Amino acid sequence: MNVDFLVLGKETLIKNEFDLRRFSVLLTDRDYEISRIVFADNADDVRGAIGECDPDDMIVAAGNTDILYDALFGESEEADRSLDYFRFGEHTFVPMREMSERKVKEVVIPLLNAKNKKYYNTVIFRTFGKTQEELREILSDYLKNRNKIMFEFNREGEQCEVRVRYSRSTSSATVNDVISGVGNALKDNVYALKDIPLAESTAELLLASDKKLCIAESFTGGGVASALVAYPGMSKCLLESIVAYSNEAKEKRLGVSHNILETCGAVSADTAFEMASGLLADPMCDIAVATTGNAGPTAERNGQVGLYYVAVGDRNAIHVFEHYYNAENAAGKSDMALRREITESGISTALFELGKYLKELKRRNQ
How far apart are the first and last CA of the chain? Predict the structure, then answer.
């Protein structure tokens, strides 16, 4: 089955060169190609273009799809315009008002695969802390020498899903080499090898550990605990969560040294360490997580907005992670929007570092 690309209407967005190139890349990555591109401004043009297509060709019609329906159905109400695709005569039609990468991946490609009896396996790497550009750089050698192995990157905030897709006809030796290499290259940033949210992945690890967790949060305002308790059974592991927002609360509830707060400030590695240490003073606490940071719009002691610290550990060792969240297009965002982004970044970082700790704990105990 070939693909004929039918561009509908003079003003259609699909004429954008980038959209056409992206559509072509999505196909060629999977060993398909566009056999022809035809522009049509009216129903007669559409009927003429369809008449020139080979039988059984797939026709992707993008732009003003009303022209397509008029050409095929006239004034009839037979056409269901909500369908992702439909058969008419000898052809399969995929209508798109504008270039939709989702529709290409979820409709066009599967239809082509089914027609050509081509099937794929997918390995998922869920990562945290790297941009799509950074991940592409890390995996550059594999992207250049793919051997028909495809890579897809789907970023959401500081998380990015890397999907490695390969045909079942690809040799197992090639697949194993690539998957093993990708895993080793990404290992410090991978939190799961399946399609699962970060919070759920960490919750699963915590529940399996049978450890008691205590949390102390400042700028994240209880967000870490809230993310975990969304999953059933967390009462088995989460002992307590304290939102120690003020310096007074940090001193009284967690035992943070007044001198540390005066000399280093509330947003410091020392304060994060002492917050976690204060939690571990409770003999029932096995693991401690603490967060403190500058969410804005102002920062403590003229520090940087976006700077925060996350402490994770136990009585053997407490590790403190310094992180600076650099928001994209910050100038165009409100103080509230930036504050929310920084807070969400802190929550995600705490969950990620806790998950890494739990994996290492499991490895040591095996």
Answer: 52
